[in-house]
Amino acid sequence: MALVATGFAGFYGMQADIKTKSSDLKSWAVNSKLFFNLDFHHDAIMEAMKASQLLSKTWWKKSIPNDIQQEVKAALFDVVSDSIFVKHTLKGHENWVNSVVFSPDGKTIASASNDTTVKIWDVATGKEIQTLPSERSANKGHENSVNSVVFSPDGKTIASASRATVKIWNWDFKNLLQKGCHRFRHHLADNPEKLEKLQICQNQKTLTVAASTLVRQAEELSKNGDFESAVEKLKKAQQFDANIDLNPKTEELDNDPRVVVGKMSAPYFVTQGIERIYNGDIKEAVAAYNKALQIDPKLEISARNWNRLCWYGGLYNHAKDVMFACKKAVALAPKDGSIIDSRGLARALTGNYKDAIEDFEVSVKWTNNPKRKSQRQSWIKDLQNGKNPFTPEVLEKLRKGE
Q1: Quick check: 89 pLDDT over 80?
Q2: Torsion angle of alpha carbons 51, 53, 55, 60, nearest 10°?
Q3: Cα(312)–Cα(278) distance, integer angstroms
Q4: Closest by alpha carbon to 302, among 313, 292, 287?
Q5: Who contacts 14 (Cβ-Cβ below 8 Å, separation ≥6)?
Q6: What does the pLDDT look like over 330-349, one tens digit per residue?
Q7: Which long-range contacts (CB under 8 A, 24 or more apart) does 152-161 make?
Q8: DSSP assignment, residue 96?
Q9: Which string of DSSP letters, residue by residue, matches 293-306?
Q10: Distance CA 349, CA 363 (A)
Q11: Whole-prediction pTM value?
Q12: 262 touches 219 (CB < 8 A)
């Protein structure tokens, strides 16, 4: 009795599974048609390909109702043909029907008409499956009445004859599936998350290109501070292509996602530091700059960005904390008078009047701005007299750009 009960349980479980799969297939096929009618082509191909991938598992395919199989096939045909599925209608052809033929398996009918089209019908439901050519097909079809139509012995091809032409139509499910993968290979490679869902479209070439896409996505995430997501992107890239260089900008082969994301994220911390500078959070800005260099000691921070830290650090009363930045800026741009001017401010604020005077004298010679020149000359005079010209009021005006 236990064995019988187990057998019944297995049978009913399998039936429930087939029912669920049938429901999914029908839903995807219907969604594909809807998306194509709305011109959402990429969404349409995803729905059709998901259904086709599931239906291609042939060990249980025979258990799926034929009308659902036909709907999936028609949806796939539409997206591969770059067409919108003709709406089902009981009106059928718009002119005389000249020929009708059954498919070899007896489940499908093809009809030829004076309206220049061939229509495919589902025998079980009487519903129209497809019109050849479909409304948006690049293939314009026959120009005259279609007099005859026939299926190939294997049911994978349809031939139709008109006054002066014979056209061959592809009705091979596997071939349509392959064409679907080929047609959307570039889109799938640019959207790895979609490729991951369509295993049937995965080949090494597409996976390799998609892996490179994931690396670029990881770089963007790193720049925006989303480090964990960036690491996951790189791990996925390695799953797609085990030999991928996760950081092609370096000479050496990088294969550690966390190390690579660390290097990618270094510019992010510089950007964060600059934001802190303008907010007057100088210590936090210094910490951000140091964090960037800690992550990537080879990171090249520009003279301009070092100068920002130097100048505003002085204006916000942190001249001593940013003196190292002043030195780096001058080392990178030793002839830039505005950068030397920033160091002069920091030197003056830390009591080094002698060297500050020298820096301001360089600034006076360098600038062509009369107001700036006069201001620096006034500072030099005060410093020469042992007076600090940078009162809180002066620093406030400088912070405001006055």
Answers
A1: no
A2: -140
A3: 8
A4: 292
A5: none
A6: 999 999 999 999 999 999 99
A7: 153/104, 154/104, 155/103, 155/104, 155/105, 155/108, 158/110, 158/118, 158/120, 158/132, 160/110, 160/112, 160/118, 160/132, 161/112
A8: -
A9: HHH-TT----HHHH
A10: 17
A11: 0.53
A12: no
What span, in angstroms and rounded, lies between the C-alpha atoms of 221 and 373?
Answer: 45
Distance CA 170, CA 390 (A): 83
Tokens of 320: 């001593």
For the cut 70, the answer to whether the pLDDT of residue 35 exceeds it is: yes
Answer with the residue of higher pLDDT: 48 or 12.
Answer: 48
pLDDT computed for residue 18 by the predictor: 82
In angstroms, rounded to a whole number, what is the distance separating the alpha carbons of residues 32 and 225? Answer: 37
And the tokens for 329?
């800026």
Residue 131 to residue 136: CA distance in whole angstroms:
11
Locate 231 and state its tokens: 């690491």
DSSP structural state of residue 148: E
Question: How big is the CA angle at 269 (ends 263 and 272), to the nearest 5 degrees?
Answer: 160
DSSP β-ladder status, 118-122 and 128-132: antiparallel
How far is the C-alpha of 159 from the C-alpha of 118, rounded, in Å? 10
The 166-170 sheet, strands edge to edge:
148-151, 157-161, 166-170
Taking only the tens place, the pLDDT of each residue in 290-299 is 988 988 888 8
Residue spans of beta strands (DSSP E) within 82-154:
97-102, 108-113, 118-122, 128-132, 148-151
pLDDT at 86 over 60: no
Which comes out higher in pLDDT, residue 249 or 269? Answer: 269
* Cβ proximity of 357 and 349 under 8 Å: no
Query: Cα–Cα distance between 285 and 269 in angstroms, integer?
Result: 9
Other C-beta atoms lying within 10 Å of the C-beta of residue 226 = 17
Q: What is the pLDDT of residue 177?
A: 81
Q: What is the pLDDT of residue 10?
A: 52
What are the φ and ψ backbone dihedral angles of 128, each rounded to 5 degrees? -70, 130
Three-state DSSP at 132 gives strand
**CA-based torsion, 88, 89, 90, 95: positive or negative:** negative
Question: Do 222 and 234 form a contact (C-beta atoms < 8 A)?
Answer: no
Rounded to whole angstroms, the Cα distance separating 299 from 291 reads 11
Task: Tell me how far apart the alpha carbons of residues 293 and 359 are, in angstroms, rounded to a whole number.
Answer: 28
Tens of pLDDT, residues 120-131: 888 778 788 888
**pLDDT exceeds cutoff 70 at 191:** yes
* CA separation for the pair 50, 245 (Å, rounded): 31
pLDDT at 337: 95
